[in-house]
Amino acid sequence: MKLFYTLFLAGWCVCQTANAQKMQPAKAISDTKKSDTSVNTEVNSRKIVTESTVVTQHQVNIKGQRIPYKAVTGTLPVWDETGKAIAGLFYTYYERSDVKDRSNRPLVISFNGGPGSASVWMHIAYTGPVLLNIDDEGYPVQPYGYKENKSSILDVADIVYIDPVNTGYSRAINKDIPGSKFFGVNADIKYLAEWINTFVTRNNRWGSPKFLIGESYGTTRVSGLALELQNSQWMYLNGVVLVSPTTLGIERGEALSAALRLPYFAATAWYHKALKSDLQGKTLSTLLPEVEQFTMNELIPALAKGSQLGDEQKKVIAAKMAAFSGLSEKIILQHNLDVPADYFWKELLRDQGFTIGRLDSRYRGIDKQDAGEGPDYNAELSSWLHSFTPAINMYIRNELNYKTDLKYNMFGSVYPWDNTGNRTAENLRDAMAQNPSLHLMVQSGYFDGACDYFNAKYNLWQMDPGGKLKDRMSWKGYESGHMMYLRSADLEKGNQDLRDFISKSLPKAGVASKF
Q1: Burial call 402-441: b when 16+ CB within 10 Å, e when fewer
Q2: Checking phi first, is residue 84 left (phi over 0); if not, alpha (psi -120 to 50) or beta?
Q3: What is the rounded distance in angstroms from the CA atom of residue 316 to the CA atom of residue 484?
Q4: Span of the secretion signal (predicted)?
Q5: Residue 334 backbone phi and psi in degrees, to 5
Q6: Are 491 and 445 in contact (CB under 8 A)?
Q7: CB neighbours of 58 closer than 8 A, spacing ≥ 6?
Q8: How far apart are CA 242 and CA 212, in angstroms?
Q9: DSSP for 270-339?
Q10: Residue 22 pLDDT greater than 50, yes or no
Q11: Which CATH class is domain 52-249+386-505?
Q12: pLDDT tens column, 488-513
């Protein structure tokens, strides 16, 4: 658990066996390769290369249509203020190859989170042209491998997946480069904006409609990048997508934080059939609005009163919280209505001998002892590393033909991380206020306990308290967790939501961008 807290979210988030024969091994994808070229890749070496390129040709079937595409895998430099290369950033760029005019072809720029996490998650499980070998609910299946992603958005947009410094194969050129150049909320935004400028220029994509998508801490990153690109690189975006967003620097306070997590508790208890029959019999879409109304209208005011809340009123609130959360009224009263998420993950299925996952509470774990205040480990993260790590290493080397002995960092050290000056929600709001063409979509899994869905809704309400931007903001919910796309039904739904968002956000020819 400590590894996860240190490397994956670092405190910024308030926030079935499949038929293996249905999965295609690596060679099924390799059969579509036509040719490849490489430049300065330092094959089978641990040398850090600031510039390298490998190009391969492929095809993928998306929604019944055969899409030819070029994959460009390599590194581009991060420049310092003097124009000196101080790091090489690893990226994978997919470009549909039967498109001649890219002036109207959208470009999606994709980041994951951590902040020390590679781009692997959305790359080979969500939007990219291949999917790792998992079952329909997202659990590992062997043999390891990957297949075509028939839901990929490559039919409607080109995509670049970027690994920040110390993730994937991205590294500073030597140990003398200070980590402060990269490892902080504002340093991260600044150097990545410069790198994006280099990438867009090198690939002649200045005329293309541009979209940012980030997951988890990546939502903090892209929210800040929206304004940084606009103000420092003079690059204006058409859309930003936040997948399982953090708090984006919006302060909550203890009482508000405690209240806002109840709808997530309710969704998770419903999933595990831990509610009483009157609530368990409802659909999630019927249950959650009821919980949300109670949270906003009764629980927040009650928690704000603290010791001023009378005993009888406190018992009434605790009884309702118990009904919605699957916990006992006694436990809720013992916690003064403020049940920590760690305790919930340990307690909900304690009598069955299981814990539940933090990032995806559909996953169950087994602790050494049933007693305790929190789980021994993150059940969902262990499962994900089981399936993702072999697949990405096989795919990059065998399929994309990028060969290096550098270790692909699923998680890399980015500490100490400077989180001061995080105002990224306000950055995104400013960017939208200044750019009438900029749209926002948020995607959340109901069973995500790290960056929960109701806090994501709260972000939108606080970013736009006057409601002037709401016509350009949207929120989508899915019956899965932090990486909601691991559930096959939500993979298809989530990608279709992305297609619809991109289409809606594209400017009409000749129509001016103005209020």
Answers
A1: bebebebbbbbebeebeeeebbbbbbbbebbeebebbbbb
A2: beta
A3: 34
A4: 1-20
A5: -60, -30
A6: no
A7: 29, 32, 33, 34, 68, 69, 70, 71, 129
A8: 9
A9: HHTT-S-HHHHTS-HHHHHHHHHHHIIIIIHHHHHHGGGS-HHHHHHHHHHHHHHHSS-HHHHHHTTT--
A10: no
A11: alpha beta
A12: 999 999 999 999 999 999 988 888 88
Tokens of 210: 């541009």
Name the one residue in this structure whose structure tokens are 């980015």: 414
> What is the rounded CA–CA span in Å between residue 189 and residue 229?
9
User: Residue 20: CB partners within 8 Å, gap ≥ 6?
Assistant: 133, 141, 142, 143
Residue 484 — left, alpha, or beta (φ > 0 → left; ψ -120 to 50 → alpha)? alpha
**Cis? peptide before 143, omega within 30° of 0:** yes
- Work out the angle between the directed axes of helices 424-434 and 453-463 (0-180°, nearest 10): 50
**Long-range contact set of residues 429-435: C-beta below 8 Å, sequence gap at least 24:** 429/463, 429/464, 429/469, 430/227, 431/226, 431/227, 431/230, 431/237, 431/240, 432/226, 432/469, 432/472, 433/468, 433/469, 434/230, 435/230, 435/236, 435/237, 435/513
Give the C-alpha separation, 407 to 261, whole Å.
37
Report the sign of the C-alpha dihedral through residues 95, 101, 102, 106, in that order: negative
Domain borders along the chain are 52-249+386-505, 254-377
Within 13 A of 381's CA, how many CA atoms are on the CB side? 20
SS (H, E, C) 182-216: CCEHHHHHHHHHHHHHHHHHHCCCCCCCEEEEEEC
